[in-house]
């Protein structure tokens, strides 16, 4: 019995208790991550796996890619817009001959083609400011991805430590049950020999039943902690998983990091320079300021350059052709010979018409134009005024939201340091309490063995020690968690 306390303390250490696996079937093929799961995962591997599998990380990355694509789209929109045009048609029935402007009932086929260029040379710096604004938003998206990864990493750390704590508590419960069972066996021998009263056996069995119930609860808590970790990793509950222990020393106060002289304001002063949520909020404030420039730009003139080229074809197009044969034709003129009028006749070559070829028409019917247009806003429904007011309000809102983010960070750091201090002090007090209760239990055990202490007082001494030992394990992991969170605000990393 005198070795019980030492055994209990050894099992409560982070580096000593064995990991508790989840023995289940393999996960479905679609749930298996890109790389095979190791038999045992470290904290680093768990965080890496969570970052790969969590949909929130993938969604934030897609949002950032959308923002990058929008920036590229806006950048390319500064280039001239060149468009091509081609029309093909057939006119039936009564229509206008495009070459004679006369009415015709002939079927006419038409075709036209052209190119047009339009380039906005100046529009009140709208494109420039839009590009800057969207670039700031895209950069803020990068910090959003980092903030999401930080949140996932912190959740993974918490779930990981909960598993380790549950494993240690279950190991401690196993020791408690074993000690109570041996006490029952020894009391049975004492009752049979007439050394002690039978009611002491009943008290010992009652204590054993209580310890077994505590072990069932500890096993249930471990199953819950394992499930929580699997969900954080986005793995099926049937995934076999083990976790490694964290490197740490014994239970003495100096073995766990204490807050010491850590100053919350100094942590905040440093953290606000690199925490991604703060940097993203500051960038969105700058983007809102560009929104004000965009609104003012609506009052500037818009200068555009345009150029066009085109050509056309019509099946009704004809041209005159002359042959080599000469024919006599009477003109409208007359000559007077001896008082007699004679009509004037001339010899002219034969003539006719022929269809102009497709490519010939395309070459002859070309048209070109170049122009500059200036649009000056005079009265536009006071859009500049209202949009400027709206942009100014958006800027103030972004500034307020950024201030809220910084205030939230400061409060989170204040709370983290305070919780670290409280957890460490509780851990130190519990360590001292366990030391005292250990001595008290040893004295009670010796008196009980000598028949100088009843079973009720003995069980009370054991229960007090067991409860303090469990509280010490929980305080240990609470202190470790709070220390890591505070360190995260110090340098932005968990590992």
UniProtKB/TrEMBL annotation:
Which Pfam families does the UniProt record give?
A: OEP
Entry annotated with the keyword Transmembrane: yes
Sorted keywords for this record are:
Cell outer membrane, Membrane, Signal, Transmembrane, Transmembrane beta strand, Transport
Task: Tell me which domain of life the UniProt entry assigns to the organism this sequence originates from.
Answer: Bacteria
Which residue positions does the secretion signal occupy? Answer: 1-19
InterPro entries linked to this entry: OMP_efflux, TolC-like
Q: Where in the cell is it found?
A: Cell outer membrane
Belongs to which family?
Belongs to the outer membrane factor (OMF) (TC 1.B.17) family.
Name the chain's protein.
Outer membrane protein
The species is: Spirosoma utsteinense
The organism that produces this protein has a lineage beginning with: Bacteria, Pseudomonadati, Bacteroidota, Cytophagia, Cytophagales
